[in-house]
Amino acid sequence: MESDGNVRLRAARIAAGYSTQETLAEAVGVAVRQVRRWESSNPPWPRGAAARRLAELLGQDLEQLGFTRPAGVPDQQSAHSRELPRTQGVVTVPVPGVTLQPATVAEDFAGITRRHRRLYWTVAPATLHPTVVAHATLGCSLLTETAGVTRRTVAAALAETFLLAGRIEFFDGREPDSARETWTRALQAAGQADDQLLGSAILAHMAFVPGWAGDRPAAVERMTAARTYARRGSSSAELLAWLDAVEAECETRCGHTQTALTLLGHAQDVLATGSEHTSPEWLDWFSPVRLAAFTGHTQLAAGHLPQARQTLLQVLDALKPSEDKQRTVILGDLAAVEAADRNPEKACEYAVAALDQLCATWYATGMDRVREVRRALTPWQHEHCVRDLDDRLYGWETTVSALGR
Fold it and tell me: In 3D, which of 3, 64, 54, 66 has the Cα closest to residue 29?
């Protein structure tokens, strides 16, 4: 043992993100003087729950942390060597190993996650997705080389990275099976971070898969889980309103539009009331304008055409320049309103505008809206406006772009 104390324990403590002895003592559940003794030149062997907690938080065995095992004390498997249960067909999030990265790795990794979050709104999904997946692979490796606060920070950023990858797969690539698997990994990472709000957001995204497939019981089950996680965390009004909106979307696709409208009305009340809690920074996909977009789509599905038209036009005017993906969806919904109102020329006008936007900013959800409109225009398929729409919809550029993505 070096004369300046237990340097192994001190180094592991700092690497795990516990910058002071006081923060480690609080995490372990012991007095500060106990940590001082452990970091002394002659540290006593930790006992009982404190020993297990110390090894778990710092990701190393006690002997690797600079302690000398007393005679007669058995060698037991430490917390960091336990494996998580494996899910069939899904790569599980690893548990910590013995090579620790410095505490700065957490912020470095999380910083890249934040940049990917912003890039999602402008970068082509086919270009961004491989980069996000590679970043997730790095995060899984870092989980084996970090512990304590550092590991939880990496795990939270990894959960968000997997969440983003799943969003690209589901909303941009129309790959629900891949998205479901990716979101399962996200949920595992959120569990490693013990982040209730991220868990809620991931579970709500997972509800989209059965919801869009018309499997209402499965969607409701996932939403119940999402609300349970939200209740355990410090949920903002925006997060709670978004949960209502997600469930409303699922109900709409399952044909329960009145239930959906009730949920959307509740979401508006939640936003109006507000909350003492602020939204997590990753909740960048929801706002009052986005709630109105959900509402307009449900009003359309319910056959409330004048209300849907008014709502969607207000949304279109309120969208920011950075919300071009959402713009394609709104234009598609406006086209559907006009088709349902037996106004094919106006419907085609909106559909062509959506195609123009899709050429600049691809979004599979927006293209789905245009295709739905074209099916609704079948009674007028010999009209010039519909034929012109077909020329755009099945032109070389659009067809190759859609198939290529």
Answer: 54
Q: Which of 67, 82, 111 lies at the terminal end of a domain, its last residue?
A: 67
pLDDT at 382: 94
From residue 199, alpha-carbon distances to 128, 156, 223 in Å are 23, 10, 11
Please return the burial class of 362, using the count of CB atoms within 10 Å of its CB with bins 0-12, 13-18 and 19+: buried
pTM, full prediction? 0.83
pLDDT in tens, 253-275: 999 999 999 999 999 999 999 99
Query: Per residue in 182-196, pLDDT tens?
Result: 999 999 999 999 999
Task: Say how far apart CA 189 and CA 348 lie, in whole Å.
Answer: 45
Rg (CA), the chain: 26
The answer to whether residues 328 and 366 touch, using CB atoms and an 8 Å cutoff, is: yes
CB 117 within 8 A of CB 164: yes
Query: How many angstroms separate the CA atoms of 84 and 12, rounded?
Result: 23
Domain boundary among 27, 44, 67: 67
pLDDT tens digits for 123-143?
999 999 999 999 999 999 999
Domain carrying residue 356: 287-405
Domain annotation covers residue 113: no
Q: CA 39 to CA 32: how far, in whole Å?
A: 11
Q: Rounded to an integer, what distance in angstroms lies between the CA atom of residue 121 and that of residue 318? A: 17
